[in-house]
Amino acid sequence: MKNNSLKLICLLCSFSFFAQGQKVKKHQTDFTTKGKLVTVYTTADSTKLRLTPTDTLAFVATKQPLETEISIFVAPQKTFQSFMGIGGAITDASAEVYAKLSKEKQQELLHAYYDKNSGIGYTLARTSIHSTDFSSASYTYIQEGDASLKTFSIEHDKQYRIPLIKEATKIAGGKLLLYVTPWSPPAFMKSNKSMLKGGTLLPEYYQAWANYYTKFIKAYEKEGMPIWGITTENEPMAVQKWESCVYTAEAERDFLKNFLGPTMKKEGLGDKKIVVWDHNRDLMTQRANVIYDDPEAAKYAWGMAYHWYETWAGGAPMFDNVRKVYEAYPDKKLLFTEGCVEKFDAAKYQFWGNAERYGTSMINDFNNGTVGWTDWNILLDQNGGPNHVGNFCFAPIHADIRSGELIYTPSYYYIGHFSKFIHTNAKRVSTAVSRSSLLSTSFLNTNGKMVTVVMNQSNQKVTYNLIIGTEKTVVVIPSHAIQTLVY
């Protein structure tokens, strides 16, 4: 009798677990290709195709794909991180160039970036706490030496930057997720007594500097611009010729847990997200280990920000480090906060390799767990500036101030293949490619539409199968092209 009771309990437990498993499975397999068409959008080198609808395809039954075929496998039942958004930085440089455009061109630029229908639908924006190299000069919001911050004022930003942020938000439908980053504390707070060329934050100014962030957030929000969050410091391991400040992993950890985190909470800003690191992929695992393994620091960190410039040393992008942080700390988020093509050269406006750098990074970063992706300057002039230390770079769109024209680079369209079609809160879906000539990632939007982005870096046109379960469609992608498939 006792054994029979035990058997009955085990049977009921097994049935309960089976039923739960079936329920999850059923919920996870809601997506179907039945009766759906695939709309294909293409951007390709040496053609006029720019986010152009190029095909409408149907699904058919599939069988075992051959080794000789190239296939992309999408598994809707296997989902990962939720998508936060894509955008670019609204810097002083972008705002100053924007102010020099005609009203007509200003509207064109805003709609190109922030309109979901006529443009590429940016939903994120990054801006700085006082100056960066992409400002016409160094400046802060206080008089030098004012540790009490009594002279704090964002009046400087009201001329160019704040009006552009407000206009962008309006075109984005009244909502733009805005986060902010400092490049350097004021000179008097630093060991080298300069905002430029590195230096460190002096311990006696830790509290004053923490207060500075909260002053900035409150001042911007008073102007009607909600701040989603902050990063601790831009590129804390780089001694740059422009605004910069060095924090070791231990220094950033201690500043976060003893000053910045508690001060944000005390000032009623505990709901704002604090994002650590904000530097390249090379050292991100070590920074994560030091900060996240300290429970008192980790509780204030929403996640980790990173950039793509580790290639300065001559190596390849360290995409795998993003995955390693994602796997080691699955409860913490990953946010790409800056990338641009360095060393501006007007002869390379239409250089296709610049766009492919974006596509390669975005696909790899999303596949490795990143929730959002933010480009650097949304707009620069015909010199790749203004930049007060001559660090001229590319942007997806440039303005030639002499002619008043906007110049769209291929990078703009490559970013658009993601930002225009993947919506906030979409779930990344397992996607694998059978041949290295293609890269791919997929997201399932909350409206039930699947978005698969495919990139071909090769010199050859490629025919590939898009396989979902027992159905497939066959797609052709030109050489050096990117496609978005919506179905």
TrEMBL record:
Domain Glycosyl hydrolase family 30 beta sandwich residues, every copy: 425-485
Keyword Signal on entry: yes
Highest rank taxon of the organism: Bacteria
UniProt cross-references to Pfam families, sorted A to Z: Glyco_hydro_30 (PF02055), Glyco_hydro_30C (PF17189)
Signal peptide bounds: 1-19
Assigned protein family: Belongs to the glycosyl hydrolase 30 family.
Protein name as catalogued: Glycosyl hydrolase
Species the sequence originates in: Flavobacterium restrictum
